[in-house]
Amino acid sequence: MSSSRVKINLIEYFENTVDLFSGKVALVDANSELTFEKLQIRAKYVAVRIAQKNRIINRPIAIYLPKSNEAIVSFLATLYSGNCYAPLDTKNPISRIKSILQVLDPICIVTNNTYIANIKKCGLDIDIINLDELDLEKTNSIELNYNECIDVDPAYIIHTSGSTGVPKGVAISHRSIFDYINWAIDTFNITEMENIGNQAPFIFDNSTLDIYLMMFTGATLYLIPEQHFMFPVNLLEYLETKRINFIFWVPSVLINIANLKLLNSSRIPTVKKVLFAGEVMPTKHLNYWIQNLDKKVLFANLYGPTEITVDCTYHIVDRKYSDDEVLPIGKPCRNSDVLILNNENNIAKIGEHGELCVRGSSLSLGYWNNFERTKSFFTQNPLNKSYPEKIYRTGDIVYVNKKSEIIYVGRKDFQIKHLGYRIELGEIEHSILSVFNSINVCVLYDQSKGEIVLIYESKEEIPNSEFRIKLANVLSKYMIPTRYVKLDQLPTTNSGKIDRVYLNRSIIME
Amino acid sequence: MEDKIIRFLTEIRPEFDFTNSSDFIENGMLDSFDIVQLVVSLDNEFGISIDGVDILPGNFSNVQNIVELLIKNGVTK
């Protein structure tokens, strides 16, 4: 393929990299490593199996695998088959997986021997591909469909918490991804020399940056074994021995390392670029990192919801911040535009609070199989009176400071960021009511302690362990409340709704 | 000491029986957030400050290992 031709789908980018770096290591997980050439061969084998049964394009394929080389092979295989992949969390309770699959309606599910029994518990009539039973050597080659994909076709669907209790599938196009990745390559000067240390789970769209920097540039992607994040000393040793020089992590991991005071000037000398996103990075902990790493190390704060393809603004740390200053989320990424709209739908003045809205090629195609919700979050740009133009309303309240930097203030609804995960308190409440149908509940977030708090109305005290055991069947572990408060009666407002403001003041800020 | 450790572990992950497991880590009974929470609980309860370099799999794989870690930190009972 001619590399000078403008590329229109992700496979064209990947094949260009394979041409340049075929023998170089692409992927390393706890069990094996794959060169770019091997990664391509394996992905095509799996793609053939998908295409044998399904000669259609632009349909979802669910990937039910833990973070591994196999998972990346399956993502690529999906793209080679002309379809889009939806990573599922193997740690999710099966009821949550089932409700995702029912809306997603995939053409098949890719899994392996370890996970197949679990996925079958869903009892849905969906074709299952077991990677351990594929006879790769015997596969006949057939024409793959990826050449039919154009830039506006979906490449992946990532599920985020939904306030009505059912997760929403955010569909992202090829163009949105290559626009984002090309911005990142230019901005952070990424080449094949990069050794990327991946932390983000694949169900979390931060992993998009790690995965596609590898596929676009020939960098090597290390999938750091999850256990290392339990024991930060081992994590730092891993970074040193693998000579990791680029990390894009969620702040809670960086904070934990800072709290344990594990860094000093001779630790992780290879690390040159430290990026973070997913929640607010406290300046105090960032300063610890800056003080303990080489002066030339680049630190960057990235911001964005899944609906606009990972990140839409960034701030490269360029000056000293005192421990109580707020780190800006910065300015828009190239080919992304940010509108800060006040209550009158006008552009907010400097210092004035408004909702951060995004326009551009980064916008998601919409929520999969959910036209209703798509319509309410992706709306006409109120400033454009001449032709249809969509913006995404993030629900994040921000303002612009005198340096023209965007500063994050908070949410206008009940969405929270906990341990880097985006959670709708409404999803937690719905799930609690589905297993405890005789009590009334309100779920709040204690920002200062980082705790999800469940307040319930009941005559009898319910043991914490009963909540936790039952909720583990319906909620992801990171969504399960850790503090429980019993009230004889939940306070209500004049309109009869639960008085969240009062509860926040009396229980969270007490 | 053992009782308190088991109580903390059970508060964090009530779905598991920590008295009957010889390796919490291998058996996947704890994750990274659980370890952070456990260390905070132990520090507060026993008035100690467990050193970051001691947060290793070998010190948290069973109750006996955690007891030894506490003894190393000067906890006597």
UniProtKB/TrEMBL annotation, chain B:
<dbReference type="InterPro" id="IPR036736">
    <property type="entry name" value="ACP-like_sf"/>
</dbReference>
<feature type="domain" description="Carrier">
    <location>
        <begin position="1"/>
        <end position="74"/>
    </location>
</feature>
<dbReference type="InterPro" id="IPR009081">
    <property type="entry name" value="PP-bd_ACP"/>
</dbReference>
<dbReference type="Pfam" id="PF00550">
    <property type="entry name" value="PP-binding"/>
</dbReference>
<protein>
    <submittedName>
        <fullName>Acyl carrier protein</fullName>
    </submittedName>
</protein>
